[in-house]
Every structure is written in C-alpha cells, then in structure tokens.
Design a protein that fits this description.
Order of helices and strands: HEEEEEEEEEEEEEEE
Distance between the termini: 79 Å
Helix content: under 10%
Shape: globular
Number of strands: 15
Number of domains: 1
Structural class: mainly beta
C-alpha cells in the first residue's frame, strides 16, 4: 500500500502558517510607529527623545550647542541684586570655555549674572505624540515654555511677573538669549541657527513645533497665522501638512522678533 505524503505535508504547512498569523503583533492604530521626522534635528549631544506609549519624552541637559558670551570666561562681571548685594561672575575663572565669544550686541556690564556652564541639571517634557488643538488657548507662564533644537530652553516675552522684556533686552546676546534664575534661555529669534528663515526652532510645551519667520510651503512669511502664530501647512518634516507655530514677523522695539508672545493652542505640559 502506497502512503500519500501530500495531505500530511499540506496540514503541517497550514498549521505553520496559522501559527505565524497568531504570533504577528497587533499594531495599535492610535500609537505612532516612529518619532516625528522633526526630532532628527534636535542635537543628540544635549537632547534625548524617545516614545513612551502614546507620548514623546524629550530630555535636555539645558545647555546650548553654539557659542555665546555667556559661557565661562576670564572677564569678571559684577552686578547688584535688588537687595543691594553684589553678585560677581568669573571671579575665579582662569580660562575661557571653548564656546565662549566676546559680547557683540550686549556688553560685560549689561550681561546677566551667571554662566551657561554654571547650570548642572536637566529638563524633561512629555507631550502627546499626536498633539491636537484644545477647545481654548492657554497662556504661557514664566520659565521654560519650550525646548529648542540646540538644547537650551525657550521663554516667552516676560522677564518676570508682569515685567516685560524691555529692560532686559540689553542683557541678551547675539542670539536673543541670556542666563536666568535657572539656565540659559532664548527670548528672541535665535540667530545662532535661524535668521529670517523657515528653520526648526524647537518644540513647545503643548507638543507643537515652532519654526522661523518664513513658511516652508511658500518660501515667504505666512499670512494666515492665528493669534498664537500658528497655522496648518506642509513643512520640511511633514509633506501632508500639520499645525505648527512660527516666529511672527512683527518687530518688537522696532528691531527684534519675539520667539513666542502668544498663548498655547494645545494643552501644555510642564517642563520639569
């Protein structure tokens, strides 16, 4: 009697196929498979970005990746605080930091106390991987409101509680930043890497990206921005289009461009 191998082999092959189908992982359609392409521009020497479920986690050491007069150097500068106490910076510094440059738009006398490399901490921001606009906007507060691609923080247009930036402008370096109670941060268009263009500036605390004054989709200044400087269009990181912010092309004190003077259009999370 001849034994027919075809049927047993067929059953064995079918069982392997069905087993493979059962083992195939189920993908949650609501969870992004990869990080947004824009995160590739964040400096990995200062910033770590990863997915945690349906959230993106951005961790930064708070230090920028570019030159500034606010890096430690051998020029001592002193100021008097509101209580009449003298605060001196670089009093014991014997060499310049490799990224130190001489001040050009500010001066040693006008600079804020403290150096970039005095900061020894970190910042963490958690945002939805797929952020959405909220039913109402939320005002920004003092302190970090976003993380720049350089590693340093983004601040709004206030220097203190109900204190406009006007009087502190003289302390800002060539890239619109200075040191503060915590770390070095930007208030104005960061000319270290973006000057009247469409470059990526960073991520705001509500999960939406901030770009320069020009729009990638048109090559010029957008005319359809909302009150927060946001609109929906294609970007160099998303050909399908998405909501994002721009530095608004409106001068402040006739010569500067505030990074983010408006409200969040999404739901912000604290930068800790």
């Amino acid at each position: 009697m001849k034994y027919n191998l075809f049927f047993p082999l067929f059953l064995f092959s079918l069982s392997l196929y069905l087993w493979g189908c059962e083992q195939e992982p189920i993908t949650d359609p609501g969870q992004p498979a990869a990080l947004h392409a824009a995160f590739a521009e964040f400096d990995t020497n200062h910033i770590t970005v990863y997915l945690d479920g349906e959230e993106v986690v951005v961790e930064s050491n708070g230090l920028p990746n570019h030159p500034s007069p606010y890096w430690s150097n051998t020029t001592e500068r002193c100021t008097t605080d509101p209580r009449g106490q003298s605060l001196c910076t670089n009093s014991n510094t014997t060499e310049n930091h490799p990224l130190f440059v001489e001040p050009v738009v500010t001066s040693y006398e006008a600079m804020a106390p403290g150096n970039i490399d005095d900061f020894n901490g970190s910042y963490t921001l958690r945002v939805p991987a797929s952020p959405s606009r909220a039913s109402s906007s939320t005002s920004t507060g003092l302190g970090p409101i976003g993380i720049a691609v350089s590693g340093a923080m983004i601040y709004n247009d206030e220097e203190g509680p109900n204190v406009p930036l006007d009087n502190a402008i003289v302390s800002l370096d060539y890239t619109g930043a200075h040191t503060g109670p915590q770390s070095y941060h930007y208030h104005l268009e960061p000319k270290a890497w973006s000057n009247d263009d469409d470059k990526l500036i960073g991520l705001m605390a509500d999960g939406f990206f901030l770009y320069g004054r020009k729009c990638y989709s048109t090559g010029t200044y957008p005319t359809d921005l909302d009150e927060s400087g946001g609109h929906t269009s294609t970007t160099q990181h998303n050909a399908d289009g998405e909501y994002h912010y721009h530095i608004q092309n409106e001068t402040y004190l006739n010569q500067y461009y505030i990074l983010f003077p408006g409200n969040y259009q999404g739901t912000p999370n604290a930068i800790q």
